[in-house]
Amino acid sequence: MTDHISDTTRHGDDITKCGGxxxxxxxxxxxxxxxxxxxxxxxxxxSTTFAQNxxxxxxxxxxxxxxxxxxxVSLANTIAALEGAQYGKIFGxxxxxxxxxxxxxxxxxxxxxxxxxxxxxxxxLIASVFADWGVEFTVVDTTKPEQVGAxxxxxxxxxxxxxxxxPLLAITDIAAVASVIKTSNAVQSANAKLIVxxxxxxxxxxxxxxxxxxxxxxxxxxxxxxxxxxVGGAVVSNDSQLDEQLDFLLGGAGPIxxxxxxxxxxxxxxxxxxxxxxxxxxxxxxxEYLAARNEVVEVLYPGLPSxxxxxxxKKQSTGKGFGGMVSIRLRDEATALKFVQSTNLICLAxxxxxxxxxLEHPATMTHQSVAGSQLEVPRDLVRISVGIENxxxxxxxxxxxxxxxGSS
Length: 408
What we know:
Layout: H1 14-17, H2 22-28, E1 52-54, E2 57-58, H3 70-83, E3 87-91, H4 94-105, E4 111-115, H5 120-132, E5 136-140, H6 145-151, E6 156-162, H7 174-188, E7 193-197, H8 202-205, E8 215-219, E9 233-237, H9 240-253, H10 259-269, H11 272-291, E10 298-300, H12 310-316, E11 325-329, H13 333-340, E12 347-348, E13 358-360, E14 381-385, H14 391-404
Parallel strand pairs: 4-5, 4-6, 6-7, 7-8, 12-13
Antiparallel strand pairs: 1-2, 3-9, 8-9, 10-11, 11-14, 13-14
């Protein structure tokens, strides 16, 4: 059986080839029905090894499951197409993707810049593992491009940004930071690359490569998978040398995604656009509802005109919404803890981006590791991943939880 896939990622113009639409590409880019059986969906290739025509004469470029797998490659092709990238790689988790990307770009003595509001796991990896390896790092407010420029050194190899950030939902102007890096590279003989973690926005809402980023990373566990049933990560770029380095590290270190996990993620990505439409509309309504509640001190959502990054978010987005994440600040930590334990429909749990709504207390859950650091989050903060349920039901649940705070 010969499938219309290969071990080389398709070019990012797959969206155009598939008819120009994002949803069309999400369904069709990266795989065509095979000639033998006509399977509409990519098969789960569970084989660990692949027959060769002759020694080192590979069929379709596949030899061993740790090196490459057709199901996994098909998913990489799809995500790369959605991001407008030529190359893509899939990993067993978002953190595995982060780890190998950092290892591909950094060596002892190198320096990186990261934002002051970032996922706790990313900071933990950099501050412990890579710092012990001799990598230096500087934390700045990336919403202020001038701070990025001031922090660039001759040994700076990368600038790592999230936008929107996790969990404060700050917005960084990707094009402005890219311009600062380009200028600094020329002046200081640095060779810094701009890495954008696009997990919160997804390629449906934001395409960083078009804004000047060099590399885009995803935790596919979140919106791309979308159903809280599979863990994974992805890295896409237009850099053939970086892609080769990641390919080598994937085969050498082995943090691969299983074919079944890749299949589940590929199934999820087909509905990314329609899911994100509901995530965004629900989140906008809920953000506006929460902004009107006296129990809430502050609502952090880029879709609100009051958000300091609203105009930048509007400028650099695809125009389809502001995402499904809403964070709020309550009057103190005790109130925040009571609130997250007072909802019924919205589940208290880590992670985000699934069809179901979740909420959490970052200071004691996802961001424990940044306590006492420059990335420490407010202890009165609650992060809400708004799902695709009926928004009236979500508001009713939030209403009950907020009313329970009156007795605090």
